[in-house]
Structure formats: structure tokens, C-alpha cells
Amino acid sequence: MARSRNNNSVGGFQFLIYVALICSVSASASIFYPISDSHRSAASELFSPIDGSFSSLRETYEALRTFEILGIDKKPDVSVAACQSVVETLGSSSSASKDIFYALKANRVLKCEVKEEVYERVVSELQSSVKSASSLLNFYHSVGSLVLIKDQLSKDDLYLGDAEGIFRSIKALSQSDGRWRYSSNNPESSTFAAGLALETLAGVISLSSSEIDQSLIGTTKNDILKLFDSIEKYDDGAFYFDEKLVDAHEHQGSLSTTSSVVRGLIEFADVTSGSLNLPSEKVVGLAKFFLGIGIPGDAQDLFNQVDSLAYLERNRVTIPLILSLPATVLSLSKKDTLKVKVNTVLGSNAPSLTVKLVRIYSSGSKDTSITENQELNFDSESGIFFLDALPKSIDVGKYIFVFETLLHDDAHKNIYTTGGQTKVPIFVTGVIKIDNAGIEVLESDLGITEVQKKLDLAGENLVSLPANHLQKLRLSFKLTTPLGNAFKPHQAIFKLKHETDVEHVFIVGNSGKKFEIVLDFLGLVEKFYYLSGRYNIQLTVGDAVMENSFLKAIGHIDLDLPEAPESAPRPPPQPVDLYSRYGPKAEINHIFRAPEKHPAKELSLAFLGLTLVPFIGFLIGLLRLGVNLKNFPSSAVSATFAFLFHLGIGAVLLLYALFWLKLDLFTTLKALSFLGVFLMFVGHRILSHLASASSKLKSA
Length: 700
Known about the structure:
Blueprint: H1 2-28, H2 37-46, H3 57-70, H4 79-91, H5 97-110, H6 116-132, H7 136-153, H8 163-171, E1 180-181, E2 189-190, H9 191-206, H10 214-229, E3 232-233, E4 239-240, H11 254-271, H12 280-292, H13 299-314, E5 319-324, E6 329-331, E7 338-344, E8 353-362, E9 369-375, E10 377-379, E11 384-387, E12 397-407, E13 416-417, E14 422-429, E15 433-443, E16 449-454, E17 463-468, E18 471-480, E19 491-498, E20 503-507, E21 509-510, E22 515-520, E23 533-542, E24 550-560, H14 578-582, H15 601-625, H16 636-661, H17 665-699
């Protein structure tokens, strides 16, 4: 039984060590992974139409766009209902510019059949709307709709009149910090609005029949750089934009705000020449932000995440590449291979790359470099870079691996980027060797060994030791790494547990060469509450990088302590076993008394027949007496009371029968009381009538 408990404890302890290792890795840095099948599964669940359609054209577009980016083949067929809604929206002259905008966005994916004259009328209305627009949202929806129509119909002759004037009108809403206002009447500036403005300005440039003044474009690029000066950063290297609007009604979250800026930035960069001079680490940081949020639980958040990553993957500023590791824990005992994967943010294959392991240094000691410039091999089938063997100087512990990704083609250096060197925390685990383990009982004064036992901490041997309060107990052992270096674990705990379940825990000290603990029982008698008897000995040694961490019983010691004085402290009350108090109780088995014997069925029926004999005799007696209806009253009133009286008698007889068959005594008496009052009343009336008739007969 003791061995079984020990094994369970070891398993539980190793599980805790594993959890602690994972938590420490997660707390140190985030490992980012491109879009995977988990996002496709989430998209299918979040974007689920009701009765074959979505609630709005905006939701329809977001769902279709998400399916398109993720390449989901099995998607709900909403084309019929969606196309009907698109045609109705575009065909109505009362549709708002916002509804037209999302109808055209949805139609870009659906490709519904819309008559050309409908497009011509919509274009005319939108151009008028742009001329009269006074707010950023009006510009955004109207200009965006015209760009969509131009792209869908390939109308090269679709232009904006006075495009440069419209550009200046939108630019007038910009602020000195790179943010934008929604309208000239609204003093609050918004980061989210900056993204809408950049996307709108890109649309104006694409709809312009002549070149826009380059000074306007130059100042807009400066606005973008100022906007990026206000970008915020997480500790894991992710960059994001946050909204700072005071008006809570217009507040946007960091995901939607960052998504808006990314769309505007990429759209503006696509239609302008020259470089924006954005730091590559910030572009990669934006990708890390979108990947770092995992899988959103909201449909619109998922769309913003996936759509923004698609924009980042096709931008001409710099396409971010994500370097990720399948595992951040390597084992020296299992000879694990270091594997690295480099992909674009949507998981597609990266261009021709060279991945180098620039250096390795111990966590917390960046000056101690272990290796430099070690190129990783590439497996074309799996698309994974790998290092066959770790450097021989690598021992167990936590390290920072620094990777650098280079492009083979020099022409692509300004397009793809990993944001410079990538630092990844990695745990290197191994089997720790345990040597010179022993436990001994010493004389307190002379230090002479009385009893000495060797310990096999990797085996199952148990020791038994006797001791008294004038002696000492010493435990010692040595830990070394696979490379022979001294190892100091996170935990080295020595525990004594009395047979009354009173526990005493001690930390095993480290002198540099070995671990040792000495217990002087003379100084511990009060701490041990003067409890003599058997103490079970338990040793715990564990660390996140120690593959053979253990918690095991190593034996027991029979300790003889002096009698406790009256002033001695008492052992603390042991915690009550909640399971024994509140757990299920023993099942109660109850045996009912055996039923008493009853007479035979035939005898009961015969007795029932005998009870009917008096009633039959009553009927015969009536016939013998010559009962007739000659004296039944002839008047209506008297006849009614006579009838009710006989009816009441019959009701009493029926009540007796019900009492015999079904009713209890109290119910019967309650009903009989009402019937008795009724019979007294009607019986008194009928008897009065008979007495009156008799007196008249005598007088006559």
C-alpha cells in the first residue's frame, strides 16, 4: 500500500513540474503561429446563417470574405438570399450610402447579376453624395463604393470630379498627431478614423483622372509616421493601436482600431509611389498582435483578425514572416532535434530563406554566449529548418536562442522581413544523476555515527532507523547534470510525518558540492511536540529541467523523545477529512415486517354476501307490510319535500357504501353532517305535512 501511494505521489509531482515548466515558458515569451485549421473550424461555427441568410449585408460580406481568405470549401450557400438583398439595395433609390457600400462589398465575392442601368444610377448618386459630403464616414462609404464599382465593372472611365479638392477636404480633418476627426464639428480625434481616412484617400487617388499634388501625399505619409509614433507595444514584441476617444459611443477596441489602421495603411501604400519608411519590426509586431490574440470568440473580431492578416501578407511595404518552434522544450536524454518553421502570417510557404542560430546564452546572463552563426538545415518536404544536434556545451537549464532569417534573393530583402533577430526561450531538460546518497544517525555531542544507511533514490529501498532526543539525523546527496556540473534544483524538501499525521517540513541546504540537512532532535523536541513514535521520511527533489524529479518515501525513523512537560505546546488539530464528513454515507438496508396472514378470498366473498342478508330481509319486510305510494303527498310542494327526503336517505346509504369501499372515517362524518342537516329540514317539512293531513282526517 505504501508503495502504491508513493507512485501516485511521484506521478502527481511530475505533472506539477510539467505544468510549472509550461507556465514559465508562456510567461517568458509568446511563440506565434500562423493561421491554422482551428481558425477555419471557428469561422464555420461563428458565421452560421439563419434560414439560409445572414442578418445584414455587412455580416454577409464579413462571412464570405473570411471564408475566401481561409480557403474554406464547405461553406453555407447564402448566395440566393444574399444576391436578392444586394439587388434590392442597389435597385432602391432610398438606400443609404453605407448600405450600398456593403452591398457592393458582398457582391465582389458573390458576383450577382445587377443591371448596368442600376450601376449607372448608383454611380450618379454616389458622385453627388461625395460632392455634398461633410463627414469622414460619408466620404468613406461613397468613395469606397465608387472604387468597388470601378473594380467590379472594369470601368476605366469612372473618375471623381475635382479629386484633389476632395482629397484636401478629407485631409482637413487630420490632426497633428496622425489621427483624424470624423467631422469638422467634432473636436475629438480618433485612431480608428485615421484608418478610415487613409483608405478613403487611397480611393480618391485611384478615382482621380490626374495626378494628385505630391505635397499632399507627402504630408499624408508624414501623418502615417506620426501615427506610428503613438503605437503601443506588448512585452512579447506585439505592436497595436488603441483608441483614445473620450466619447464612449464611438470607442473602438484595440483589435478593430489596429485592423482599421492596417487596411488604410496598405490601401494607401498600394496607390502611392515611394517608400513609407516604416520600421520592419513594427510591421512584424502588428502581425504578432493579430496572431497573439488566438481565435476570437466573436464573428466580427475573427473577420478583423483574418482580413488584417490578409492585408499584411499582400502589402508592398514589407511582408512579415513568422518564425515559430513546434516545441520549446528540448531533452538531452532523448536527443531532441531543434526545429524551426518560417511562414507567412496566413500559413503559406515562405520564400527562399536561410535561418541561422546566431547565438545562445543562458537566461539572465546575456553576456555568456555559447555559440554563434550556426546555419540550420532545411527539409523541403516538411518545410522545416532543423539542427541535428545541440552544441556540446549545452547543459540542462533555460536558454535564449537567437535566430536570424535571411533571404537568398537580394531583391526581396525589402519585401519580406522577420523583424530582425528573433529571441525564443527554450528549456533544455535532462536526467540528473544522484550520487552519494545516504542517511545516518549521529551522537549529538561527539558526532560519531551510530547508524548509517546508503540510499538508492532511483530505486525502491526503504530504511529503518532508531534515534532518541540526544542524537542527530543527517541526510546528504549529490546532484550532477549530464555534463557533470553541479545541479541546484528548484525544490529539495525533507519531510517527517508522525503516525498521528503531524508533519514537519525542512528545506535541504546546498553547500555547492552536495545537498545536506542535519536535524538536532534535542533542539526540535518542542517543534515535534514531544511526540515519540514512528516518523515516516519523505524526500522531494524537483526542477522544471529535471526529467527524473521525484517525491518518494525513503523509510522511517523510530524516535524516542522525553515526556512532555505541562507547559509544552500541543499538536495542532489535524484537518478533518471533508470526504468522510460530506461524502456518501453507508447504504441503509431496511427490511419491512412480513405481512400478516389473511383469510382466503372465498371466505371474504362469503362474508360479504352475509352482510347483504339484512338488506334483503329489509326489502322482504317492506313487501310483507304492504308498502305503497297511496300516502305520497299530492301537492307539488309536499311531493317535492317527500322526494328530497327519500333522495337524502338514498344518499346516506350511498355514503355508507363509499365508506366501506373508499372513504375514511373523517371524510364520511363530514359528508354525513351536511346530509343530516338536509334530512332534518326536509324530514321536518314532510312529517309536518303528514301530521296535518292526519289531524284533518280525524276531524272529518
